[in-house]
Specification:
mainly alpha; 4 helices
Length: 160
């Protein structure tokens, strides 16, 4: 039984070696053909011409893109400057406008900081203020506000 397997294995190796030999020869022929094509002066000239043409087109496209970008930047700059001119009060020059914008950016030392709101006085328990007695006046004002808001809220057809 071992002899049968040995014969089959040897047949497989012969077939495989023949396939590998044929593949090697095909690869050798193809490599030689490619080398001839690469060394051909006509092909090299054609390739150089194609690369030169491609380089020229790329340079032209890059130049056009740069010009368009510069135009867009000028357009944005003009738009912003017109917007800033509209914000300036009449009679101000560019120097005073830049000084005014600098003054707005950094608070001056001459002006005092804005005052804080005064604290409410009254008795407090913990953090909540103590209840005060004067609900009658608050109830009357709340009733007036409620009646006024009822008439002001009609948006559609009346009487629906």
């Amino acid at each position: 039984m071992a002899e049968k397997w040995d014969k089959q294995f040897m047949a497989f190796i012969r077939r495989t070696s023949e396939d590998i030999r044929r593949t090697g020869e095909d690869l050798k022929v193809e490599a030689e053909r490619l080398l001839v094509e690469v060394r051909d002066p006509a092909r090299q000239a054609k390739l150089k011409a194609t690369l030169t043409d491609f380089r020229d087109k790329a340079a032209a496209v890059t130049k056009e893109a740069a010009e368009r970008l510069e135009g867009a930047a000028r357009h944005v700059e003009d738009f912003v400057s017109r917007g800033l001119e509209l914000e300036k009060p009449p009679g101000n020059s560019a120097k005073t406008a830049s000084a005014a914008s600098a003054a707005q950016a950094a608070p001056s030392a001459k002006e005092p900081p804005p005052a804080k709101a005064p604290r409410k006085t009254g008795k407090t328990i913990g953090k909540k203020p103590a209840a005060k007695k004067a609900p009658a006046a608050k109830k009357a004002s709340a009733a007036k506000k409620a009646s006024a808001s009822k008439t002001a809220k009609t948006l559609g057809r009346k009487g629906v």
